[in-house]
Amino acid sequence: MVQAFEAELKKYMAIETAIGLIAPVHCIGALSLETQPLKYSLKSEAGSWKAQFAKNLHRQGAEDLKVGHVLAEPLLRLSSSLECHLQRLAHSRLCWPRCST
C-alpha cells in the first residue's frame, strides 16, 4: 500500500513539474499568450488532487484499522482462553505423577 501511495504521489509531482516547465509566455507568430495564470490554476488543481488522494488514503487506512480491530478481538479472546487451558493442563501434569503413586 505504501508503494502505491508513493507511485501516485510521484505521478502528481511529475504533473506539477511538467506544469512548472511551461513557459510563462508562449509566442505564436505575432500572437503572445500569457500562460502564467493557467499554470497557477493547473498547479492548484494538482495540489487539490494530492490532498484528495491523501484524504482518501487516510480514510481507507482508518477503515482498515477498524476492520482489523474487529477481527483481532475474537482472536485475542481465543488466545487468552487457550492460554488458560494450557496453564490448567500444565498444572494437571504436575499433579498427575503424585496421584498415580
Q: Which terms would index this structure?
A:
2 strands, mainly alpha, single chain
Helix content: over 70%
Unreliable spans: none
Counting DSSP E segments of at least 2 residues, the number of strands comes to 2
Q: So what's the oligomer here?
A: single chain
Structural class: mainly alpha
Order of helices and strands: HEEH
State the domain count. Answer: 1
Estimated share of beta-strand residues: 5-15%
Distance linking N and C termini: 61 Å
Spatial strand order of the main sheet = 1-2
Rg (C-alpha, Å): 31 Å
Basic shape: rod-shaped
Number of helices: 2
Please give the largest β-sheet: 2 strands, antiparallel
Mean pLDDT: 78
Structure overview:
The protein starts with a helix and ends with a helix. The chain has one domain (2-100). The chain has a two-stranded antiparallel ribbon with strand order 1-2. It is mainly alpha-helical and 101 residues long. The chain has helices at 2-20, 36-100; strands spanning 25-28, 31-34. α1 (2-20) runs antiparallel to α2 (36-100). The protein is built from two helices and two strands. β1 and β2 (31-34) form a beta hairpin. The model has no long low-confidence stretch (mean pLDDT 78).
Produce a short descriptive summary:
The chain is mainly alpha-helical.
Question: What's the SSE blueprint?
Answer:
Layout: H1 2-20, E1 25-28, E2 31-34, H2 36-100
Antiparallel strand pairs: 1-2
